[in-house]
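Give me structure tokens for this 47-residue protein.
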Amino acid sequence: MLKSRKQLSMYSILYNKIPDNHILKVMDEAVDFSFNGLVIYNAQCAA
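Here you go.
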């Protein structure tokens, strides 16, 4: 019988090592950064 193993990327392994109370994790949860894509798109298309 094969054992199922959850495969994790290197990013997720490293991300899980950062404490939950780290300032960047707290900011990521508190601030919606989804507007960045539109801002960058508009800046690149205008150039």
